[in-house]
Amino acid sequence: MIPDEAWNVLHRLRSRGYDVYLVGGCVRDLIMKKTPKDFDIITTADLRQVKDTFSGSAVIVGRRFPICHVHENNSIVEVSSFNTYARGSTSNQIYTSKSPHCSKNDYIRWKNCQGRDFTINGLMFNPYAEKIYDYFGGIEDIKKAKVRTVIPAGTSFQEDCARILRAIRIAARLGFNFPKETAYYVRTLACSVARLDKGRILMEVNYMLAYGSAEASLRLLWRFGLLEHLLPFQAAYFSSTRFKRKDKGTNMLLVLFSKLDSFLAPNRPCHNSLWISILALHEALVRQPRDPLVVATFALALYLGGDMSLALDIGKSINRQHNAGFSELLEPQVWDDKHLVAEVQSLAVSMRRALTEMTDEYFVANAMAKIPQAPSSDLVFIPLQAYLKVLKLIECVQHGKKEHGYEPKSDGNIDYHDLSYGTPAEHWLPPIDGLCIRFHFLQICNQVMPIKVPQKPLS
Questions:
Q1: Is residue 459 very low, low, confident or very high in pLDDT (cuts 50, 70, 90)?
Q2: Taking the mean position of all CA atoms in its chain, how far away is CA 300?
Q3: What is the rounded CA–CA span in Å between residue 51 and residue 68?
Q4: In whole angstroms, what separates CA 302 from the centre of its chain?
Q5: For 97, which DSSP code?
Q6: How confident is the model at residue 325 (pLDDT cuts 50, 70, 90)?
Q7: Bridge pairing between strands 123-126 and 131-134
Q8: Which tens digits make up the pLDDT trace of 430-442?
Q9: Read out DSSP for 181-194?
């Protein structure tokens, strides 16, 4: 299960006499027979020696804890050094004891693993000796399905509050639970994540929502009081609908993201503009519920690049029932073309307004104020580039004019390269049109609305 790119890096470093190990989450995933998102390597070589080994295809990145990115066959393999960790460690406190008879190499490995976030990530694997090094009970915690910090949870999260978000992400992806101490400090220190750099928050939230575990992530974020700090509009929705922190039920937002999850996996992510689009659409429907046919026609028009006439034709042929359990959807009624187009364009305007307010500090602060006992905050981490990409998609429906040169996807196959980058690979299509984003937005809406998804060329 170790890909050729990782093997190439391991072989090259080992051939120069350096010790090499796989480390962290990839070892955990291999033990669990899951496909790792990526493969991280640690070596006794320093980073300059790593870079020299892969001259021209490696670059050192990072300041506090630099690593080396080695480019192999259009992939990046991250390589860290034991030497870097030894110099960068700022804490001399020992929280767990080492064996009195351990060797120097054992001590170096043990010390490095002590600096990891969770026991299930504090594993090293020598693929040549086929030996796993587990100094903190990571394998046992995998068996128990527990996400436990290596050092005491309160200390760990205060040292690096990003570990709180990583704990949620890992638990959601693996279906693991927190021990009592870890759960207590995740909840107690939840507000500290707002101090993180916005780019870091975006990265962690994107890992949660774009890699196949969005529904579980949203549930855990809500359960432990983190959702209001990150996505206050969605937290306000949970609160206003009396969705309990440990609620086992569902709602429209969770169903939409469950459908998104069905397309994705850790090695098959989507572009962030897709989950942002889902959030904006849902928020628009929370504010003004719509007829299912209006929502279905909107999704079709978006997929068809603004071809409202064809969207109407397909929409009117729908005869399936919508999911009647969601307050965001009204009872169906009969529409003539003129009024249906007006309603679809009105939904586009509402979605645009929701998107704009989700990325505006003033409106974010107001949303926070609607959540009982939530602290004041105006955190906005959705980047301008993603905002503009989603806005571009909405505008084609709002204006009701088909985009020049746009051709909708003509089959049901998923191009994960396009889905990850949010743009089509074909050079002759407009670079911003988000072909796969549109297609899967339509598929996701199909989970709760009666949409006939085209599976063959349209004319």
A1: very low
A2: 25
A3: 7
A4: 23
A5: P
A6: confident
A7: antiparallel
A8: 333 456 788 888 8
A9: HHHHHHHHTGGGGG
Residue 167 identity: A
* DSSP secondary structure string for all residues of 392-412: HHHHHHHHT-PPTT-----SS
Torsion angles phi and psi, residue 47, rounded to 5: -65, -30
Q: Write the pLDDT tens digit of every residue in 105-153.
A: 899 999 999 999 999 999 999 999 999 999 999 999 999 999 999 999 9
How many angstroms separate the CA atoms of 104 and 394, rounded? 60
Residue 456 is classified by DSSP as: S
Find, among 120, 124, 130, 118, the residue nearest to 157 by Cα.
118
Report the topology of domain 153-230: Hydrophobic Seed Protein (1.10.110)
Question: Which CATH number is 4-144 given?
Answer: 3.30.460.10
Write the single-letter amino acid at 232: P
Q: Where are the domains of the chain?
A: 4-144, 153-230, 262-445
Collapsed DSSP state (helix, strand, coil) of residue 28: helix
Find where tokens 């690593």 sit.
Answer: 67
- The answer to whether the beta carbons of residues 419 and 227 sit under 8 Å apart is no
Please answer whether residues 456 and 290 qualify as being in contact, where contact means their C-beta atoms are separated by less than 8 angstroms: no
As a whole number of angstroms, the distance between CA 8 and CA 5 comes to: 5
What pLDDT score does 158 carry?
97
